[in-house]
Amino acid sequence: MTWVFDFIALVKRNYTLQHPPVAPKDDDALRIGTLGAARITPEALILPARSHPGVVVTAVAARNPARAREFAQKHGIPRVFDSYQELLDDPDIDAVYNPLPNGLHYEWTMKAITAWKHVLLEKPSCNTADETRRIFQYAEEKGVLVLEAFHYRWHPAVHRVREIVQSGELGAVKRLDGALTVPSGWFPRDDVRYDWTMGGGCMMDMGVYPLSFIRWLLDAEPISVISASAIPAHTSTLSAPLDRGTTALLSFPNDVTASLTCDSATPLPWEIMPKVEMKIECERGSVYILNFVQPTAYHYVTVHRQGKRPTTEKIYSSGPLSQKKFKGEDWWTTYRYQLEAFVDKIRGREPDYWMSAEDSIKQMEAVEMIYRKSGMGVRPASTYTL
Ligand SMILES: NC(=O)C1=CN([C@@H]2O[C@H](COP(=O)(O)OP(=O)(O)OC[C@H]3O[C@@H](n4cnc5c(N)ncnc54)[C@H](OP(=O)(O)O)[C@@H]3O)[C@@H](O)[C@H]2O)C=CC1
Ligand SMILES: O=C1OC[C@@H](O)[C@H](O)[C@H]1O
């Protein structure tokens, strides 16, 4: 019978995450403007802001004014700007969400910082580690906040996995295997993910998730990339090499190895569903999590302890977290948790979790190491100068 209750909870949670309760807004709610009418914005910002009393999405700017108006109307955004710069220049906006193509992250985040705006910056933070370093340095100089939107990092389920791994109860970690793949047809062939000039490539778009999770689970950086191979995308050329997918094997301190796989178009019929998983093998057992990227929709964590029967946990806000209790509701998406932390930090409150500048910089250094090893080379640096 438990599965019936689980199924009802799953349906309820997935309905509520798409139709969150609307919170009455605080008088001093943070006013966020969003750059571009990007596909990810409703899920990553507009829905989460709905249930947050301390945030209002007050403005959108798009390259095409008609598109901006249509987007604003659809999502109840009161103000529309005909250019990104006009939005940044508006003194009634406190923070911006930057979900532009990767190749524009650097330029528009630097411009936003110049305009004294806090920035919620989509992953991957920039095309190169050097750009990421410069962004955080500049933000510090100007006294504004930049956060790379690695939303999964805020969900209690991934914290639980990290807690088990780092508690030492299973002994030392020996090996990790992470994957994020989607079947062919998931992205249109003209998607910006396949545009080299815009910082495209699957390692940039999807491989960054298992990479970031591995680094965080270990609290360590790769020593070297043992091997890396990339499948060229249909847009890949010699002068603009771009991966449809990448597989890499990394070496970490203490003899730990980790593999990651990402693919933006796994050929049918080998895969008809996305694959999103991480397995951590330790001396005396293992931990497996299904769907570490969007655990709110569905996930499970299975722990094999040597000599014992495997156990399975599902961890939402009310789950059996032995570490500190997170703020949140079962239906809070990773983006909702992330927004809570972003606002808390700006308002001087201690967030439940925070992803540091150092972490974002090290993450891009690791991405570069993998691209160099696979022969694809690092993504083109922005031509924007401050
Ligand atoms: N956190 C997450 O779960 C996810 C994060 N992302 C990240 O968000 C970013 C955007 O992804 P996604 O929403 O899928 O992308 P979209 O292509 O839907 O959106 C990108 C936006 O960038 C603007 N833009 C400006 N210049 C260009 C250009 N030259 N070519 C294309 N678009 C341009 C467009 O805005 P306009 O024309 O309206 O001005 C467009 O709406 C990426 O960095 C990606 O990695 C994506 C999906 C999930
Ligand atoms: O951030 C993301 O999350 C899930 C992926 O499928 C997507 O391509 C990416 O942009």
From TrEMBL:
Top-tier EC class: oxidoreductase
Keyword Transmembrane carried by entry: no
Coiled coil: none
Protein source organism: Exidia glandulosa HHB12029
Family statement: Belongs to the Gfo/Idh/MocA family.
Keyword Metal-binding: no
Domain Gfo/Idh/MocA-like oxidoreductase N-terminal: residue ranges: 31-148
GO molecular function: D-xylose 1-dehydrogenase (NADP+) activity; nucleotide binding
Name assigned to this protein: D-xylose 1-dehydrogenase (NADP(+), D-xylono-1,5-lactone-forming)
Stretches assigned to the GFO/IDH/MocA-like oxidoreductase domain: 159-287
UniProtKB keywords: Oxidoreductase
EC numbers for this chain: 1.1.1.179
Reaction equations catalysed: D-xylose + NADP(+) = D-xylono-1,5-lactone + NADPH + H(+)
